[in-house]
Specification:
3% of the residues lie in helices and 47% in strands. With 118 residues, the protein is mostly beta strands. The protein has a single domain, classed as Peptide methionine sulfoxide reductase (Metal Binding Protein, Guanine Nucleotide Exchange Factor, Chain A, Beta Complex), CATH 2.170.150. Belongs to the yippee family. Keywords: Metal-binding, Zinc.
Length: 118
């Protein structure tokens, strides 16, 4: 097994709630109006310190998408997914973008989703 290199981000950071590995910057949020099984989800332009799963077709509220689940490199927890392809023209803006499930990450102020929802 190779050596694990983890990127440390400067600024307001979203991190894995299990191991605090940095995942994304507040400045890279495109939208906070997404939802997932566990509640809110945020669309990001850039996410670091992840590995990806297998491509799969997933039917979502906005239509069929090709996605890969994304996992924290620090602990292996699933933290969201990446849009590989959108089948609807109106959804093409999501391609190459990342969803982080708010329930699975700590916010820039260290808050978790349950605290943020109150």
């Amino acid at each position: 097994m190779g050596r694990l290199f983890v990127i440390t981000l400067d600024g307001s950071v979203y991190s894995c709630k299990h191991c605090q590995t940095h995942l994304a910057l507040l400045d890279d949020i495109i939208s906070k109006s997404f939802h997932c099984r566990h509640g809110k989800a945020y669309l990001f332009d850039r996410v670091v310190n992840i590995t990806v799963g297998e491509k799969e077709e997933r039917l979502m509220m906005t239509g069929m998408h090709t996605v890969v689940d994304i996992f924290c490199v620090g602990c292996g927890s699933i933290v969201g997914w990446k849009y590989e392809a959108a089948h609807e023209k109106t959804q093409k803006y999501k391609e190459g973008k990342f969803i982080l499930e708010r329930f699975k990450v700590l916010g820039p102020d260290g808050s978790n989703y349950l605290m943020a929802a109150c």
